[in-house]
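Annotated sample (chain length 52).
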Amino acid sequence: MLMTEFYRQRIAKVENEIRMAELERDFKKVAKLQAEKVDWEERARRESIGRL
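Output written by the structure step:
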């Protein structure tokens, strides 16, 4: 549970950073952050599968 919550917080933080980068029209940063978000989502998915 602890790691799952950590992953959720990281994903939320990255989503916020994506919104800020979009407002700044920094699309290179948006692409980098989206890749990071996918990585965190994959980690969260593996964590939830491991618990089954």
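Annotation: The mean pLDDT is 94.
Annotation: The chain has two helices and no strands.
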